[in-house]
Every structure is written in C-alpha cells, then in structure tokens.
Amino acid sequence: MARATLRERARYWFDNTMSKGTAALIGWLALVSAVLILVVSAFALWLTPAEVEDGLPGAMWTALMRTLSPGKIASDGGTVPYLGLMLVASLGGIFIVSLLVSLLSAGLKEKIEDLRKGRSRIIETGHTVILGWSDQIFTIVGELVKAHASERGSIIAILADRDKLSMEDEIRLRLGDTGRTRLVCRTGRPTEPVDLALMNLDDASSVVVLSPQGEDPDAHVIKTLLALARRPGAHPPTVAAIADSGNMAAARLAGGPKVHLVDSDDTAARLIVQSSRQSGMSVVCMDLLNFDDGEIYLRADPSLAGHTYGESLPAFKGATVIGLRTNGNVTLNPPMDTRIGTADEIIVIAQDDSMIRLAAGAAKVDASAITTAERTGSEPERTLVLGWNSRAREVVRYLDGYVASGSVLDIAADHPDAGSGLAGLRHLTVNTKDCDTTDRYALESLSIGLYQHVIVLSDDRYATHHADTRTLMTLLQLRDMQTALGERYSIVSEMHDESNRALAEVTEADDIVISDTVIGLLLAQLAENQHLADVFGYLFDSRGSEIYPRPAADYVRPGVPVGFATVIESARRRGETAIGYRLASGVNQPPHFGVTLNPDKSQSIALGSHDSVIVLAER
C-alpha cells in the first residue's frame, strides 16, 4: 500500500479536528479571523501607512472592528487601496460572523437536545429507582406517591429507553399532580452499565425492575439484574417481576441475595383461584396492597411480650392484628395460645404507622350478640373456565388444591393449548370443549347454570386491549344470561388494564382481577418494605390461613348493633382473626365494593344476614 502523502495527512488531521464538535469549529473560525486581521493590517501598513494610526496595533484594531461589524465601512474615508482593504476585512467578517452565529445556534440546539434526552447524572439520595417501562409504571408511581405523601423532597427516578419528555408527559397525563414527590426521568437502557451510572444507585433507597411489554420480557429483566449485580459500589434492595415461573431460578442467580423476585403468573393465578372460591377476595387483596387505606406493618412492642396472640387481637386502637413474625418466619392467624416473644414482631393492618398504638383500655364486647355456627365440610363442585392463557395451567393446579375429591372442571376455549399439560391432578376431573367464549349461542350450549363458579381468563393470543375487549364481551353475555334465566353462579374475570375496570363493573362480575395492577401494587409495597414479601407470600399460599369472607350471621346476631371488637372476639373463639367486613349493599359500589378493613373497634355497626365478616382462617 502506498504511503500517505503530505496532503492526505493534512486533510486527515483537519478532518479529525473538525469532528471534535462545536468548540473545534469555533477555534478554526478564530484562527481564520486572526489570519484575516493580520493580513489586512500588514497590507494597510505597506500600502497606506499614512492612513494607519498607532502602527500595527492601530491597524489590527481597525481591521478587527471591520471584521466583527461590517457595517462600519459605510463611515470610512481615505484612498482607494485603504478602502479596498477595509472592504476585504468587512466581506471576510460577514462570512465569519455568519458561520459563528450558525455554529452557536447549532451547538445550543445540540445542548438543549442533550438536556431533553436526560443524560445528566442524578445527584439525589434516598430516591426510589425504577428501571424499564410498562403499563405497570403508572400503578407503581401512583402508589409510591401516596406512600410518600407526608414526606418532603421524596424522589422517584425512572430510567427507560424512551424520550425523557414523553415519559414525563405520559405520567403527568395519567397521574396528574404528584404532590411532594418529584419525578426525575432519564433516557437510557437499564441493561447498560453506563446508563445505570446516571441513576446514582449507590445512594438509592430501593430499585424496581419492570418487566417490559413484548416478546420474552424475562430475558430483559434478567439482563438488567446481571448489569446491576456487576456494577461496583453499594447495591440497594431490588425487586423485580418475572412473567414465566420457569425463569425464576435464572433470575435468582442473576440478581443475587439482595433481589426479591415476584412471580407474576404464579401470584395472579393464586389470586384468581382464591377469588373464585371467595367472593370479594380480589377487593380485599387490592385494599391491602395499595397505600390508600389499610396497609400492613410489622411492629415490635415489648409490652405485649408474654401475652398470647389471642390476647393481642384487641390491643391496638387504630390497628388490627393479623399475625406474628418470629425469627424471620411469618405466620398469619397463628394458634390463639401462641406466646409473643420479646423479639417477635406483630403484623398489623393500619391506615398509617402513626396509628399503631396500644389502646388505653379494652374495647367493649357484647357477649350476648355472639353466635356460634358449625363449620360445614367441603363438597364436590363444578367449575367452568372460559378462555385459556399461559397461566391457566397454574390456575387449574391451584384450584385442584382447594376443591374436594370428585369435583369437575370444564374448560371451554378455542385456544390450541386449552386443557394441555394437566396430568397429575388429585381432586379434579377435567373436560375440554372447543368454544368461542364471545359467542352467545356457544355459551348457552354450555348449560352454565350447572356450575357453582365461572372463571373467565384473558386470551394471551391477542394484544392486552383486544383481550380485555373480548373478556368484556364474555362478561356481558354471562350477565345477560343470568338475568334472563334467573341463574346464580360466581363469576371471576381476569383483565390487564385497570382503565377497563370501570367498563367491567357494568357486568356486575363478583370479582375482577386486574393482573398487571396486582403485580404493580405488590412491587410498590416491596419497594417500600421487602419484609412484607413473606406476608403477601403467606396470604397468596393455599397452605396455612387465608382470607375468607364468611356469613356475618355465623359471628354475630343479624341486625344487632355491635362494635367490631365483638366480631373480633367471636372470630377468636373459632380460632380465626377478623380483619374487616363487607356490606352486601355496597358490592357494586367502587372503589371498595362494600369492603371495610381495619374498622374502628368501638364504632357500632349492624351486620345483616347477607353481609360478610372477613377473617383469616384455616380451610
């Protein structure tokens, strides 16, 4: 290969300097200006020395003024050579000033674009970092804003591969004013260490990794967890959602011990099954998961050490006791004679942590209003599943753990995988039928009145909004059939978008599980307190005590005004923990649908025969 010529070397050097940006271009303009001024000054001293004042400095000053302000030549006088030199300086100045203005404009625009992209490093402490973007971000940010409503200077920092301004505008449009909480958005890829450095993770209080929408979202989450684990410095507590249960082991390995993983499919499947068994379960769980009213807290109180769990139930004035945390192990509704140790933490529901204080005295209990009822055994049931998706197998397997032997599950769907992979069931007999779940005649052919429970699953072959639309069509058909035929069976529906809940309320379904919202609420709770992971894991597990709305008449005499302390005592005698009630008159009234958690123990309430007491109890 021939060696580079001097001209090629010079051009290569010039190209490299020009590629260094606005500063290098302005430097070249300054050099050209200096050369022009020196040349004009030298020729002025040589050709018209009599018209130059103060020698070379005077000539350079005059040439500089003509270069920077070409209009000055209009007031010049003198010989033709002198005026010609000043004209050259003015023409060169027009070229130089025009280029300078253009470069400054382009450089300023580039700087504004950089600021718009959000590429500066965050200088905050104690902030919550959210990595990634999905529809769950609106739920998480909204809940964190509620959680930090009483705090000044709280920060939520978001890093996603989206335009900074569009992220801010979208959050502002969906959530409105964020109060005292400030949002800081940055554009970048959460999987890139360079972009993660923008978030000042060393000083963050917690990190939330979102599962993005699209194909194979778990791969993105796992790669982000790897990037977090590999970065130097402090590693704040991290929570992440995994869509496919089969990827949990890989995610745990990638994230390390400080990462808590939420199994999205598993959690949603458990809630769907429990809601199908107990009407109102999804509403209760949503109330426990959000930061609006009742929240779950862990509180150590040495004054209760030595007392039994049953004795502690009425101990707090503004909080409801639901369980114990002993040596890191959570138990909800433990045996009533369980002794509270000095190091044990009491698990309570309270509106705010400031409300968790011991009552001055015991609330009044009306023993004459307490009733007793025998617990009936479980009998075989018939359940219908309409639709199919990737989490349907988990739904069926969890349902198999609840029902009595001899129960029947019929699956009606036009999904190609419907009913597959269900070997090894112990209690359920499964039948599958091809059916378009949005078609009225197809639904009527199923004789739905023969079933006690109907579960409507979202079809994952369609985009989320289209899938929710199909679910709404199915619910409307079912409700119209119930009205026309006078049948009654519980209907539990799975949906994705919280905005569709208002539309679904028209169908008066018993429970609507918004799976994405549930996961978003859970992530927000764990971002604030990772110790709650064991509590919610216990709640969603089929083993141990669970939440049950049970007939109020089993606990207190219908229509008799009593304080909630009486309901707590009645449940205690049955080995259960009462946490609230549900009024039948409000089952279709959002946002709580008749559910009241952690009621005032002394406030009088008359529960009717159609109302329910919400308890933690063994099956």
Automatic annotation (TrEMBL):
It is a multi-pass membrane protein. Residues 281-364 form the RCK C-terminal domain. One of its GO terms (biological process) is potassium ion transport. One of its GO terms (molecular function) is monoatomic cation transmembrane transporter activity. GO terms for cellular component: endomembrane system. The chain crosses the membrane at residues 21-47, 82-108. InterPro entries: CASTOR/POLLUX/SYM8-like, CASTOR/POLLUX/SYM8_dom, NAD(P)-bd_dom_sf, RCK_C, RCK_C_sf. It is found in: Endomembrane system. Keywords: Ion channel, Ion transport, Lipoprotein, Membrane, Transmembrane, Transmembrane helix, Transport. This is Lipoprotein.
